[in-house]
TrEMBL record, chain A:
InterPro entries: Bact_TGase-like, Papain-like_cys_pep_sf, TgpA_N, Transglutaminase-like. This is Transglutaminase domain-containing protein. Pfam families: TgpA_N (PF11992), Transglut_core (PF01841). Gene3D superfamilies: 3.10.620.30. SMART domains: TGc. Residues 201-220, 319-348, 562-614, 667-695 are annotated as: Disordered. The chain crosses the membrane at residues 28-46, 58-80, 112-132, 139-157, 163-180, 235-253, 634-658.
UniProtKB/TrEMBL annotation, chain B:
This is MoxR family ATPase. It comes from Nonomuraea montanisoli. Keywords: ATP-binding, Nucleotide-binding. One of its GO terms (molecular function) is ATP binding. Residues 241-308 form the ChlI/MoxR AAA lid domain. The keyword Endoplasmic reticulum does not apply.
Amino acid sequence: MRLSVAAAVATFCAAILLYPLFEGGSWFWGTLGAVLAVLAASMLSGRLSLPLWAAPPVGAVALWVYLTASFAAGKAWAWVVPTKASVVELARLFGSGWTDIQRFAAPVPANAGITLLTCGGVGLIALLVDLLAARMRRAALAGLPLLALATVPATILADPISWPAFVIAASGFLGLLLADGRERVGHWGRAVLVRRTTRAAAPQPPGAAGRARQDADRVRETADTRGLRLSGKRIGFAAVVLAVLVPAALPVMEPVSFFTFGVGGRGAGAGNSISIPNPIANLKGQLELPEQRVVLSYTNSDDKPRYLRIYALDTFDGDQFGMTEPKGSPDNRTENGPLPPPPGLSRGVPVANVVTDIRISDEIAKLSFLPLPYPPRQIQVDGDWRADVGTLMVFSTREEAAGLEYKVSTSEPAPTSELLKSLPQSRPDLDDRYLKVPDDLPPEIRALADEVTKGARTSYDAAVKLQEFFTKTGNFTYTLQTQGHGNSALKDFLLRSRAGYCEQFAASMAVLARLAGIPSRVAIGYTGGTKVGDRWTVGTNDSHSWPELYFEGVGWLPFEPTPTGSLGQGSARVPAYTVPPPDRTGDGSTPTPGATSSSADEPLSPQGRANPRELDREATLQPVGLPAEEPAPWPAYVGIGAGVLLLLLLVPAALRLLTRGRRLRRLDGAGRTGGAPSGLDGADAPQGGSGAGVRAVAGRRPNVAAVWAELDDLLLDYGMERGASETPRALARRLAERYEFDADSAAALAAVASAVERSLFARSPGEIGPMRQDLRTIRRALAATVSRGRRVRAVLLPPSTLRRLRRLGEGLLDGFDRLESLRLRRAAPKGS
Amino acid sequence: MAVTHDVPPQLDELVSTAHRIREAVESVVEGKSDAVRLTLTVLLAEGHLLIEDVPGVGKTMLAKALARSIDCPVRRVQFTPDLLPSDITGVSAYNQQTREFEFKPGPVFANIVVGDEINRASPKTQSALLECMEEHQVTVDGVTYQLDSPFMVIATQNPIEMEGTYPLPEAQRDRFTARVAMGYPEPHAELEMLDVHGGASPLDKLQPVATTAEVRALIEAVRGVYVSQPVKKYAIDLVVATRHSPDLRLGASPRSTLQLVRAARAHAALAGRDYVIPDDLQDLAVPVLAHRLLPSVEAQGQRRLPEQVVTDLVRRVPVPETRAS
């Protein structure tokens, strides 16, 4: 019974972790109901002592009835009993929920379908947890379904789960484990080996012993698991606290190691197949990374920043752009000389031949495509890298780009507007896939394409108009806060919100271009980055996506519909040839972001870009011009860790020194006042941790108290601790006899003992001389009797200080115990 | 004691007197300085001493030597089964001449009364003596007679021959401040004893070294010894510990607390201190407490004597206010 409840609570606590996935709270009550339904079923089968195999069906039926009642009550018989119609209704809701989940990005609206899916899922998890924990008595194993539930938000969202939610979920599971342990031990017998609270360990006052014994007799009929429960709670509490605090104290995990370029999801390295990444999914993630990590750096022969393309996405399915599997025949290995010629580039077009030297960061994981300026002609790189003839993507089925350094020569077409305008408007000699749009594309988008490109005489004009639409006339804004991608998202972006980031801009322009009859594809890679020192450095927030449009005779040309500069993607720049001819931008004083940065970027100088970047949205996360922080090498971390550890280890020694210093100062202070009579009443009692005894001594003689406390600690440090019943005199006798003190030391010891004795017990303590010298003599004599190791330990890890710290800890624990027992009494479940 | 410190002047005299008595007694009872010291302590604490040991180890000798070294009346009563209470307290006899009843004081009218083999007398007689011990007075035929001060009963008891004896009930043992076991002497002490006792009895040579007045002054001084609050608390802790010890069926009485502190005062004074320290209590705990305690059945089964139990308790009970935490 108790386990069933604990299992339900644990499941529900874990389900709370789903909160960031939903808008609104209807899912919350729905899941609560599902969990309760499963709990009721579990209690029923427990009460009826149903066999193990029968419990899950009963639970499933309960869940089914619950789902029917809450989602298809209208179609059910008596609102509860499932009928054919209600099943159909549930299936329909299920289907719509499934579609919604596919379509929306988190947080999703909690509509009926999605809530049904959530309730059903959580209910199934509850069923599983209950089966494992309450029926099969494998509470620890029940953590797996709970973990599965917890990983849902963790995998979907980039943001970490907030820690209070984590604490709740962890507490739920701990509660389950505790309940299980308690049941288990309850069947064994008495629990031993539990920490006694100091209160319990203290000698009991007369009379209390008898009562306690009676209590014990009364509870002995069932095993006394109170102490065990306390330990369990304490361990669980510590574990949760550690789990929350330690990650906060650790250096931040480097996100770069975790973002992959998607390759490998479907078995990279298994044979020579290459899996197609979903680059778009990564794009936003990288742009949203909390700090910029360096992805690569490069130098090139003309020292101008260039976009580095990794992928070219050529197919559009109505939802998003995808990539046809690249094909690299052995002929097109990079080591076999020049790559295939760039498609469509004819001889008449001026080209800029540039050699670029690229170095990829070690931290990049699973990148098997090379970031390259387009179009690459020849590459010097180690390993088996091959070029795809159509797109000139360079990839490998075996190698990874991390840490790679390679040289690429490119022939970048540098057409002028006039040249582009004069291109023949013939049907491009290119694969149809670059023009293909799905038939069910919303007609509004087609209309928009027509409207934007109205009046364009050439495809180049159309392309320029499109880019202008995005950067100027369309009133688009740049933001990373968008929802999803796909057909409706495209429509939403183009027609309604007009807010998005490079992914939307690039894809939309590519789609519109196709609708206008210009072959297009979406390139994904990086912008040219920032110049740091003598290298161009490209970071994660330079991740970018842009459309490439094809013009017969020139080939693929990149365009830049994404707003650049301060209100857009900082390091993006508008290619010179896409700037409308002067006659059309005569009124170009309009300081739109696109216009300003395009004019600034015309010479492609790094200085020209430096200014707009200062207000750049992404760059606010990392000041411009500063080199990206290089992670310290691991020996440095080890060194720092060791240093911190060393410092921590020195804390007890330092505390001990402080204490001793304080006592000696008090000794000096008292010494100066000489043998004044016992008028020095307790005003100067030592603060903190010296206990009643010393305080009593201090009440009469602060210096005696200091000496006595110091002597006590000294003895503890050297492992000759004074027994509880050992009087000062007995102590002096024992030490002098056992360690064969010489006359001086024995006299010093006797003097101290006598002073303490008189301070404590005599009517008037009489003359007490300065004892600093005595103390030193005693310390020296004691130190001479112990081994060197012991002496070192007494200095570095003095047991007296450790004991004090431990007491402090025990005090804290006792405090927790009291808190827990307070809460326990109220919350103790009645069942079981 | 190794520690020297200022002795209040009034104690000087006291200590030297006590020292003289001790030396005198020890000249007769060789090698038993602990027993002698305890005897003296009990005397100064106005208590009574129970000496329990096998025959022939000098129980009576100790009692006599103490009595002799103080110049005071000493009476010795040999307890036998036919001894009557009036044999102790005294009787009223009719005086033919005065035609009045006249009180003939019994042996109890002395400063030191030695009761030999007290367990051989009938309980009635025992209790007559014990009443005198507690009340310091004798009531015969309705007339109360005060006993002289100092008044000390030194009773001896033979734990071996139990045939035909009436062992003291616990309630009555409680009246004795301390019990001491003489123990066999060390070989060298025994050798010395042979030499000394070979001729005349050393008791004959023993001269009194103190007067009753001096002893009375001593007792008065002991009463003034300072007992600090922590030490009182420690005494209570010790006594309370006996009441809660699982090894004991019967713990020590409040009277024992009183006597413990009183004895500790004397002990401190004998050491030349005008204040009691926990060491005094620790030294006296076994002789003062052990004979009042009854071991539990478990402890008896383990052959744990009350002495051992008390020793353990002394080791366990923390000394008040010297613990640093």
